[in-house]
Design a protein that fits this description.
Chain lengths: ~60, ~500
């Protein structure tokens, strides 16, 4: 595993910050999902996505 | 139903109280005996009591860190904030998501440094790295004052459910304190480590039942969200947040996430892991708790939909349980909340005791706090820490205790440059720069917070920004400037 590839993998860890800290992107009520306004289900969806991203980085970096 | 305050007039009944007592007492006994069982097998030293002998593997670490990071703040304060403010209170969700990429990137490095140097606290790490006893003391003191109101918040959490059980007067607070003291005194870090799974199982059951059953009572999630919106101030059309809340929402999430693992208790959970890979894998698995936090936050909205009206938002979850569930299940839910506060409070007290003993009190030469006498001192200091937290509640208005917890977050964030940015040698930070930055950050942050009436957000050029984030920005800038100017490291006698 090259250092460069590891560094690139780590960039995946920045995605949750981008997806969750730019509030205007998800501060709305539609489209709703299972009765959940967008604001709520969008943020809840980031939980499994973040776990998967961290897992992916761990797999790539594993010695 | 309408729940006025306090709730003692309408408890969960004898069955509920019985269920509560069984589960709460079982947790305390299991935790206390974990210490004895361990002590009989291995040498019972201070590091055994305070860091579990750095032996915790994948699952114990998952339960321990999850158990001490998701606290009464999660089960009481987050739904209370959502009840009081609506969507804005949900910032705890992005906070507890973005914290994990941060943990993945930073905490394995800190673990390695701590393991190699035999460090048990943030202040230990900083002293070794920057060769400064003054910086060590400053970091230790910051950790201590930041964690005291956090422990106080856990005691408030236990008190809230004991009040909801119908216990009168000051008995709930006394009972909360005594149960915590016995649990920590006897079990050490093995107590929360061995009962965290029980805490989680109970909270998962209570919350999954709550978020399934309660919306059924209220006509489904869509109806629940609509009814709740009728009880809260209206945001602009099509929005969830009100005008001016977007930036505070994001900056509070960011500053809380950066601060979360600098606390003595969360760091203790991390440093007690067996190896750094345990921490990396945990960063991928701990978000499971965040899903739970998101669902718990929704209880604040469900309370509106269920018609709960109270001037004390921290009583919202117990009131909701009493309104919806049969007495015995409400009792179970209360036990889950009480245990959910007990486990982290124990880790907090141990983490704070570690700081006092290792970094603030003078230490006998050659003593690393790892013998039997070290454990005795650690126990006594942990008890004193809890007494101080109790003092917070008795002397101050409980609402002020919650504000102080916000201030605690601001303070602990000021140790970020020394502990985390210090990992990057290219920044060229040194002890003088970090001390100057810390002083500037603490001063700026505290002054702004007090001037704003202890609100966590400051209006900067008309935009609300997390005060903690402002203060740590000042801190970093000063630390970098002074480090560059005064490059000669200071030597303090150790």
């Amino acid at each position: 595993m090259t250092t460069r590839r590891r560094g690139a993998a780590r960039l995946l860890l920045l995605l949750p910050f981008a997806g969750l800290l730019w509030t205007p992107f998800y501060d709305r009520l539609t489209p709703a999902l299972f009765g959940f306004p967008f604001f709520y289900w969008y943020q809840l969806a980031w939980v499994p996505v973040t776990a998967a991203l961290i897992f992916a980085v761990w797999r790539i970096e594993r010695p | 139903m309408t729940a006025s305050t306090p709730l003692s007039s309408h408890g969960p009944g004898a069955a509920g109280i019985a269920v509560f007592v069984v589960f709460f007492a079982a947790t305390i006994l299991l935790g206390a005996s974990a210490g004895w069982r361990r002590a009989s097998r291995t040498q019972a030293g201070g590091e055994q009591w305070s860091l579990g002998g750095r032996s915790f593997g994948m699952w114990v670490t998952w339960f321990l860190v999850g158990g001490d990071f998701y606290t009464a703040y999660t089960v009481i304060a987050v739904p209370a904030l959502v009840y009081a403010t609506g969507a804005y209170g949900f910032f705890a969700l992005p906070y507890t998501i973005i914290v994990y990429p941060f943990v993945y990137a930073v905490m394995p490095k800190l673990w390695q440094i701590a393991r190699d140097g035999g460090h048990a606290t943030a202040a230990d790490i900083v002293r070794a790295r920057f060769d400064s006893v003054l910086l060590e003391r400053v970091v230790a003191l910051t950790g201590l004052v930041a964690v005291l109101p956090y422990i106080a918040l856990q005691l408030v959490g236990i008190r809230v459910v004991l009040e909801a059980l119908g216990l009168p007067g000051e008995i709930p607070l006394v009972a909360a304190f005594l149960s915590l003291a016995a649990y920590t005194w006897l079990g050490g870090l093995h107590a929360p480590a061995s009962t965290a799974f029980l805490k989680d199982a109970m909270i998962y059951v209570a919350v999954i039942v709550a978020v399934t059953v309660i919306p059924l009572h209220l006509g489904g999630y869509g109806a629940m969200f609509r009814t709740a919106a009728d009880h809260l101030p209206r945001p602009g059309a099509g929005h969830a947040l009100r005008a001016g809340q977007a930036v505070p929402y994001a900056t509070l999430a960011l500053s809380s996430a950066l601060a979360a693992f600098l606390y003595p208790h969360t760091l203790t959970g991390v440093l007690a892991a067996r190896d750094s890979d345990t921490i990396r894998r945990n960063a991928a698995m701990l978000p499971a708790y965040t899903l739970l936090l998101g669902l718990i936050a929704l209880l604040g909205l469900m309370a509106h939909a269920a018609g709960i009206v109270t001037a004390h938002p921290s009583a919202v979850v117990p009131a909701l349980f009493l309104a919806i569930f049969p007495g015995w299940f409400a009792g179970f839910g209360f036990a889950a909340i009480a245990v959910g506060a007990l486990v982290p409070a124990a880790v907090m007290a141990i983490g704070a005791a570690n700081l006092v003993i290792r970094n603030l009190l003078p230490r006998p030469a050659g003593d690393r706090g790892e013998d039997r006498a070290g454990r005795g001192r650690a126990r006594i200091v942990a008890l004193l820490v809890k007494v101080a937290a109790l003092g917070f509640i008795l002397l101050l208005d409980p609402a002020f205790a919650i504000n102080l917890q916000l201030l605690g977050g601001l303070w602990i964030l000021q140790t970020l440059p020394a502990l985390v940015l210090g990992l990057l040698p290219s920044l060229g930070l040194n002890a003088r720069g970090l001390l100057a930055g810390w002083a500037a950050g603490m001063l700026t942050g505290s002054l702004i917070a007090f001037a704003d009436g202890l609100k966590p957000v400051h209006a900067l050029l008309g935009v609300g920004v997390s005060t903690g984030l402002l203060a740590v920005t000042v801190n970093v800038v000063i630390a970098l400037l002074v480090s560059r100017t005064v490059s000669r490291p200071i030597r303090t006698p150790s």
